[in-house]
Amino acid sequence: MIVTPADRTLSVQEYYFSRKLKEIDSLNRDRLSRGEDPIINLGIGAPDGMPPTQAIDTLIKETVKSGVHAYQSYIGTPELREAFSKWYERYYGVHLDPNGEIQPLVGSKEGILLISLAFVNKGDKVLVPDPGYPTYTSASRMVEAEILTYDLREENGWYPDFDALERMDLDGVKIMWVNYPHMPTGASASKELYQRLVDFALRHRILLVNDNPYSFILNDNPLSIFSAQGAKECCLELNSLSKAHNMSGWRIGMVGGDASLVGEVLKVKSQMDSGMFRPMQMAAVAALSQGPEWFEALNAEYRTRREMAGSIFDAIGATYDHSSSGLFLWGRVDGKGEDVSDRFLYNAGVFITPGFIFGRNGENYVRISLCAKPQVLQCALEKIEKVL
Fold this sequence. Notes:
The mean pLDDT is 96. 41% of the residues lie in helices and 15% in strands. The chain is globular and about 60 Å long. It folds into 2 domains: 7-50 and 293-387, Alpha-Beta Complex (Aspartate Aminotransferase, domain 1), CATH 3.90.1150.10; 69-288, Type I PLP-dependent aspartate aminotransferase-like (Major domain) (Aspartate Aminotransferase, domain 2). The protein is an alpha/beta fold.
């Protein structure tokens, strides 16, 4: 290597799923040479359904117009910001001003790093859930924060232990990451939980960031952190079209909150890119206009898949919440989840995610993605049963 990488890269490694997909590709080449079926990947939550027809039609129509292929506004089109605002009003009962309180993003994952860059100095503390989305930790490490993990445990419904939080040394904490419906466990939020989180953040002067992309999946009561009193004083919320509209590859998301907070995120973002392709923004407007029937059809399919994923857990003896929300089913196994995952990957040709990648509290768990068609889940069950 001609130069030494930045010190910040020493604190992180290539994302687990990036590394695992390379291994699966290698295993598949060997399996193909032996005439075997490829590995069934039940790992990543990448929706396999089609986006709303109106979104695709709008993208096609808008792309052939002249003048749409130039740089776009850093703050997104007025139409997209207004569509996000109406979406929040319609489904969350929350008002976000499209002129300052909404910033479109290239997927909400981008927002995790942008928020970290905007608010965290070297040595500042960040509260990260365990188990939780690994990007909260990696983004915090890259901005050289001190990471404080707070425990989420099954016996507490995967909610924070507020008494334990109050006993922590919170001096210097800048950000607390929360995520409900929770990934990976599927626990849903309640208004009471959000109010306690907001009260905690206000009392300790912490920026509370709610990562909310799963709120429509197997969840009849979508909630926003901004439904809690005082939330705009201390909160940002990330959201996206990836999960709820089958548009993960489009990379369309947003961050919402008080204009002063959103403006700080824009300061960083505007140094990084030059706005989203306008036809995609207009297609997102069409997607956000979907009525309840879109989500009803989406969730009817996911309910079927959740039941079939449960059959896999029943077969391997895992215990799980039959009514969990989100794109995954999370199950407790006898022993280490990594051992269970490896057993079925190498012997059955089925990959299910080991829970340890989400934190210490996930070591005895595994996760199945519901982003696989029922016949694929059935095939995975049969392969696992042969090994058992």
